[in-house]
Design a protein that fits this description.
Elements: H1 2-19, E1 32-38, E2 42-51, H2 54-65, E3 68-70, E4 79-83, E5 88-94, E6 99-103, E7 106-112, H3 115-126
Antiparallel strand pairs: 1-2, 1-4, 3-7, 4-5, 5-6, 6-7
Helix pairs in contact: 2-3
Length: 130
């Protein structure tokens, strides 16, 4: 009986952690599309850039996965990022020194990018022309 309770408790922990994760996957991800936003809401279709190099995709995903959760952070995004592997999309606010992100379908949790991730993502975006 004790083993069963431990097993059930372990499964509950795995379920809770798995459901609350912001982790994005690069598995089956062939392209990342990044659009500029006007006024934080309007998608500028003619500004799309696409990351297609597998190494760049991996670097981008690793950078956003290293972000830290922030409570009640509000920001105006300047990019919408779409992942082509059914992971969905997210809004990204990025300048030279700071970066924030939030899933497009769950704005209740926002995340702060590390300084290294901000530099990396800025470099990836600037090295790809629309």
């Amino acid at each position: 009986m004790k083993k069963l309770l431990i097993l059930l408790f372990s499964l509950l922990i795995v379920f809770v952690v798995g459901c609350s994760s912001k982790t994005f996957s690069s598995k089956n991800l062939e392209r990342i599309d990044i659009y500029e936003l006007d006024n934080g809401t309007e998608l500028k279709l003619n500004t799309r850039i696409s990351l297609t190099d597998p190494e760049e995709i991996k670097q981008f995903i690793n950078a956003i996965n290293k972000s830290e959760k922030s409570e009640e952070l509000t920001f105006e995004p300047n990019y919408q990022v779409e992942l082509t592997n059914l992971e969905g999309s997210f809004f990204l606010s990025l300048n030279e020194t700071q970066g924030y992100l939030v899933r497009a379908n769950d704005e209740s949790e926002s995340y702060i990018l590390s300084e290294n991730s901000v530099v990396l993502i800025n470099n990836l975006i600037s090295n790809v022309s629309p």
